[in-house]
Amino acid sequence: MPELPEVETIRNTLKRFVLNRTIEVVKVYWGKIIKKPDDVEHFKQLLIGQTIHDIKRKGKFLLFELGDYTLISHLRMEGKYSVHYKDEPLKKHTHVIFSFTTEEELRYNDVRKFGTMHIVKKGEELLQKPLIQLGPDPFEKAFSAEYFYKKLKATNRSIKSVLLDQTIVAGLGNIYVDETLFKARIHPLKKANKLTKKEVQEIRKQAISTLEEAVAQGGTTIRSYVNSQGEMGMFQQELSVYGQENKACPTCDKPITKMKVGGRGTHVCLNCQKL
DNA sequence: CACTATGTTGGTTG
DNA sequence: TCAACCAACATAGT
What we know:
Blueprint: H1 4-18, E1 23-28, E2 34-36, H2 40-47, E3 54-58, E4 61-65, E5 69-74, E6 79-85, E7 94-100, E8 104-110, E9 116-121, H3 145-153, H4 159-164, H5 174-183, H6 197-216, E10 257-261, E11 264-268
Parallel strand pairs: 2-9
Antiparallel strand pairs: 1-7, 3-4, 4-5, 5-9, 6-8, 7-8, 10-11
Helix pairs in contact: 1-6, 3-6, 5-6
This protein binds a DNA duplex through helix 5.
């Protein structure tokens, strides 16, 4: 489900309901979501008594900053957070509950159970899994034109697979890669090290502006994504190619083609994006 | 009913 | 080094 704009929207909508809440009870109904510590009881015990001081984001990861630890959460395809009164009935796929000292609790819901949670000591987030190999967030200074060009020069993989690689830049997924490459007029199978400096700069610029616009629209709802208040995103109205197979290209009116790149469904205007 | 696809990523294989 | 494939899991569409 969520890429950077959706995770950022979840962060923003969630913050006002969980900041300064203290965890009193933790329930885990699907233990495989908990990756660290490996013992689920230990996971619960570390969280009890901890207060949520802030929620940050890096790429597609949410970072719940607690007093002594950071809870690092990845939503993968279908993960969702929402806050409920404790007496509200659980939804079908609620797998983890963080119950506060107030009347409310934070619930993690995940139809496909792919999501992950790690607890790490505060200050050691970047030194270990799951963030250690993560590249810069596109909104960070570290994602500079020079950095990006250097990384692309160093590989002859297709540009689409490189943009999906979270160790290069963290936050783009299938929707925003297709949209970015369309706006930059680059074919997804183009080899990264064959791109000119100008083309690389254009890809970087379009990636950042597409993500910014999607954040402003509250993310993209194609199938099931909603923010932590159950609201849909609006960016799906702005999509040029993703999910637009056989529809007219907004630039040239030729039909959008769907193909397979790196095993992922890939949407492209073959007239505007030449190989 | 069978088969495919899905906003992710980690591991294996060749 | 990299592409291809599979795995995790549930659901919707053809």
